[in-house]
Amino acid sequence: MATVLKAAVREDLRGSRLTKIRQQGNIPAVVYGKKFESKAVAVNEIDFIKTMRVEGKTGVFKMDIDGTQTDVMIYDIQFDTLKNEVIHVDFYAADMKVEMDADVPVALVGESKGVKEGGVLQQAVYELSVRALPRELPDQIEVNVEELDVNDALLVKDLKAGDNFTINNDEDEVVVSVTPPDEEPEEDLTEGDEEPELVDADAEDSEESEEESNQ
């Protein structure tokens, strides 16, 4: 069964109205696209979270805007980390017959040889720009790191694009690498690096006084 997210058009765009929308358990949002007139809408927060869990960021689903259904995908989410809630969403009205660019999450798979030997895994890229038809956009791009040894790296050109999508990033961009473990050398005292001898301040003062009395 296809996912359908209901939305209502927002006529009142004042800031005070946005606060009321959130208090009612809804999220202010906007829908736009190349062949779609931009519309300010509101969606139910619980329904949106359910849809996002099922479809992911790159999934295409139906949005019912006051009775009219449109193919959309989640384009951007504004999140309030202090309140732990979504405060605004951008939806993109997709043309299902035209390729588009989207940012797709990178998922690392496995444990590398280098990490087992004490190396440190460094992920440089967390999302890759991908071009495909809306229905062909992958949910994520898996990168297997099991064969990575210390001082090894995987570049964009080392990744395998799917049959239905291409990766837009520079082919020489580093996606993930394994660096040597951080080693701090121990401090050894050698000849010439002896600790300075501490002088008793009271003894030094008494010696100076004795010298002055003998003069």
From TrEMBL:
<comment type="function">
    <text>This is one of the proteins that binds to the 5S RNA in the ribosome where it forms part of the central protuberance.</text>
</comment>
<dbReference type="GO" id="GO:0003735">
    <property type="term" value="F:structural constituent of ribosome"/>
</dbReference>
<dbReference type="GO" id="GO:0008097">
    <property type="term" value="F:5S rRNA binding"/>
</dbReference>
<dbReference type="Pfam" id="PF14693">
    <property type="entry name" value="Ribosomal_TL5_C"/>
</dbReference>
<dbReference type="GO" id="GO:0022625">
    <property type="term" value="C:cytosolic large ribosomal subunit"/>
</dbReference>
<dbReference type="InterPro" id="IPR037121">
    <property type="entry name" value="Ribosomal_bL25_C"/>
</dbReference>
<dbReference type="Pfam" id="PF01386">
    <property type="entry name" value="Ribosomal_L25p"/>
</dbReference>
<dbReference type="InterPro" id="IPR011035">
    <property type="entry name" value="Ribosomal_bL25/Gln-tRNA_synth"/>
</dbReference>
<dbReference type="InterPro" id="IPR020056">
    <property type="entry name" value="Rbsml_bL25/Gln-tRNA_synth_N"/>
</dbReference>
<feature type="domain" description="Large ribosomal subunit protein bL25 L25">
    <location>
        <begin position="5"/>
        <end position="91"/>
    </location>
</feature>
<dbReference type="InterPro" id="IPR029751">
    <property type="entry name" value="Ribosomal_L25_dom"/>
</dbReference>
<keyword id="KW-0689">Ribosomal protein</keyword>
<keyword id="KW-0694">RNA-binding</keyword>
<protein>
    <recommendedName>
        <fullName>Large ribosomal subunit protein bL25</fullName>
    </recommendedName>
</protein>
<feature type="region of interest" description="Disordered">
    <location>
        <begin position="171"/>
        <end position="215"/>
    </location>
</feature>
<dbReference type="InterPro" id="IPR020930">
    <property type="entry name" value="Ribosomal_uL5_bac-type"/>
</dbReference>
<dbReference type="GO" id="GO:0006412">
    <property type="term" value="P:translation"/>
</dbReference>
<feature type="domain" description="Large ribosomal subunit protein bL25 beta">
    <location>
        <begin position="100"/>
        <end position="181"/>
    </location>
</feature>
<keyword id="KW-0687">Ribonucleoprotein</keyword>
<comment type="subunit">
    <text>Part of the 50S ribosomal subunit; part of the 5S rRNA/L5/L18/L25 subcomplex. Contacts the 5S rRNA. Binds to the 5S rRNA independently of L5 and L18.</text>
</comment>
<comment type="similarity">
    <text>Belongs to the bacterial ribosomal protein bL25 family. CTC subfamily.</text>
</comment>
<feature type="compositionally biased region" description="Acidic residues">
    <location>
        <begin position="181"/>
        <end position="215"/>
    </location>
</feature>
<dbReference type="InterPro" id="IPR020057">
    <property type="entry name" value="Ribosomal_bL25_b-dom"/>
</dbReference>
<dbReference type="InterPro" id="IPR001021">
    <property type="entry name" value="Ribosomal_bL25_long"/>
</dbReference>
<keyword id="KW-0699">rRNA-binding</keyword>
